[in-house]
Queue: 2 jobs
Job 1
Amino acid sequence: MKFFVDTADVGEIKELAESGLIDGVTTNPSLVAKSGRDFKTIITEICALTDGPVSAEVAALDADGMITEGRALAEIAENVAVKVPLTWEGLRACKTLTDGGTMVNVTLCFSANQALMAAKAGATFVSPFIGRLDDMGLDGMELIEEIRTIYDNYLDLNTEILAASIRTVGHVKQSALAGADVATVPPGVIKALVKHPLTDKGLEAFMADWKKTGQKIV
Ligand code: E4P
């Protein structure tokens, strides 16, 4: 399973990229607004920090506008994945951009039929938003399971399932169990994945006992 980091904070991405555990990055207009920085500068900096796909979202709502913006974003670096919304216009743009060799992440996916259409449009990634479905009292994980089943039914559908809107460590585990190809995870949740109180307790006891031996390894 690949891990993308879901942020437009270049400092956080740098720190995580240095661990070698991150396979790509996703941004969205809200994350860019939160950073308060210039969008293309952020994408340029992120693309220099990772070889993996870096999602950069278009702002146009019509297919022609999305294609123009998508091509401009794709010129920033070869690892840019143009992000388009899951609308009819977005799918038209997706088809043109992927036919031209550009990676496309189709975002704001909330149903299995939408994911089927994204795959038909040749999407590189489809992003089902788990947390936002959970927020409505629905089961976001059920959507990942449905998409996995549908994509596995048809060998010609090569779109990767990118579990998005992940809010908890439980979401990451459930996405992995459901067979998502990628999870895009906020930095804080990525760090929380390695935490367990029994690990901390066990390490403390081992270190106390090691001290008693008076030995050194190097
Ligand atoms: C995915 O690409 C989105 O940037 C992100 O996961 C949205 O998460 P949110 O629903 O927590 O805003």
Job 2
Amino acid sequence: MKVLLPLPVPGPYDYAVPDGTDAPPGAIVRVPLGAREVDGVVWGEGGRGIAEEKLRAIAGVRPAPPLSRTMRRFIAWVARYTVNSESSVLRMALRASEAFDLPAPRRALRATGAEPRRMTPARRRVLELMADGRARLPRDVALEAGVGGSVARGLVSAGVLEEVALPRRAAVAPPDPDAPGPELSEDQARAAALLGEAVRKRAFDPVVLEGVTGSGKTEVYFDAIAQALKRDRQALVLLPEIALSAQFLERFEARFGAAPAVWHSDVPRGLRRDVWRGAATGDVRVVAGARSALFLPFRELGLIVVDEEHDGSYKQEDGVCYHARDMAVARASLERIPVVLCSATPSLETLVNVDRGRYRRVGLPSRHAGAAMPEIATVDMTRAAMERERWLSPPLVEALGTCLENGEQALLYLNRRGYAPLTLCRTCGHRLACPNCSAWLVEHRLRGGLQCHHCGLRSARPEACPRCRAADTLAACGPGVERLAEEAAGRFPGARIEIMASDTLLGPNDAAELVARVERREVDILIGTQMAAKGHHFPMLTLVGVVDADLGLDGGDPRAMERTWQLLHQVSGRAGREDRPGRVLLQTHDPRHPVMRALVSGDRERFLEREKRGREEAGMPPYGRLAGVVVSGPDEDRVRRLAHDLARHAPRGPGLDVFGPAPAPLSLLRGRFRWRLLVKAGRGAALQPALRSWLDPVRPRGGLRLQVDIDPLSFL
Ligand code: ADP
Ligand code: ZN
């Protein structure tokens, strides 16, 4: 029998099955590997030619539901698509080994009615407490009777108390599918009916749910989830920043009477076990999770929702590189279920799939309850009268003043954490850089010190320039959110200002707490990075100031324009979400740039058509396909040699080009040198097979690593 191991080994291994052991395909089994015993999954019948008696036998079958055939096919599919081994994909699906054992029964204590031979005051208190005949957890017995734990244990040995097993509570309370939702508008009802129909049909059916922020997409897919639940099927909602979506969880709970099960990399062990097992047994009905939730072994999945489908954080860029949105579509296809891709700004990939007739599109044209879209204008920074070391232009300052006078809230958006992105010596021009990465060190004043945003390295800000030794010559260059907060506080001394960035908040609870404070109007000016741009609904927020709208537009990324447009559109959508109209000011050095023009005019169709044409002419995705190949290692010479070696043996052919090698823009990362190759393939070319036959024979040695990134989003 073949057993796939979630370890860096080439393929499934053969094992013998002892008589009387039932290990069906998909079963999680313990097998010997060298001197160890490890978990693996029964992957199929044994190979030919190996005598059964020469094989080592599996050691046992774990009491967990076997991975379904669909789940196994999904794992194999992802491995093939991403050009990885099935083992490394299986590893992502088994990341909850504590879930493979039966949950330990909860033991409680109950009085037997017997009298102890020796009575003490403590024992008497316990007996009086237990006289009502109820079973209690040992902890509660001690607590309620006010005695130490040993007293109850002594009474158990004396036969006065007995242990009984308590039925397990459901780990996650089930949502109620019949809980009433809000009355849907006509457009919403139409979209909900279409999704409901798709859920009932139980067929693969990708639907793009498109609507401006605030149009009620969430309400619409909640309705589809209710339909799935009513048909005894599970639902999965993928969210880009699950750790920060307290608002989402609250809304879900308000709608369905119970929160969904949550899944992301920081979920504590106990919950991890319950959610993994619950997904497999069917006890957990709805999971809201980050991209890794896609690898949960659902028993009867009926619907997948990918919220903010255009969001770049769906792309995993280390280990197995995959795009969770695309893999969600693949899983839905194997499960034969609908998948809903939601966004106010669907990715070009998704829109082109609509054009090609592969996805259906359903739109929600206006904001719920008629809230108007905000008015968007640019501030030309080449003409603005800017003071030295200041980043808020006069028009933005004026708008902020008005906003505060009206008792409304403002968001200043700058996607830069810390105080200043660069520190430089005014005497010799030396720039403080990370020793492990090709990146500047970013100054953080709130937490103190300098930090590399790539490897996390921290150091104190030096007193003197490390190169020329001049004292007091280091100057902060450019703004981060902390410096902006300083400027805002200087200009509006009475205003309550808060920063929302991943490093100024301690974690999900802290983030939720800040969001709640903004909702309660305890904050006047919120200064935030991308984290503040996403999803939040702040009724009194009427002004959005984008401090540097050009950030992210340069560089060789083919999606730079699309991404900037999406992000700025999304940030803009934070303004004026209820009855007060919203206003957005974009500070830019190029007001005539197509992205700025598209935002100001609201003419997104023209912008998208232009983007599509540009990509098509260049053979870029989604009209052509790309794969990144990164060679990395601690020794630059060996990295370069392997990269050149690869290039010499690169596949060439009709519809297939290989560019490079060249040092990556981020040529040093965490102490590893990096070189890149880029494979460009026409739509019809067999990209993955070509990569396989090129790269499979290569066995990197001496700390070298080779990483393949199909459909890369990052070119660093
Ligand atoms: P989106 O997901 O498109 O950004 P939401 O679903 O978050 O939009 O809706 C925006 C706001 O409008 C939310 O507060 C939501 O509860 C409310 N809302 C949307 N549709 C309705 C409806 N039919 N009835 C009542 N409130 C609604
Ligand atoms: Zn670094």
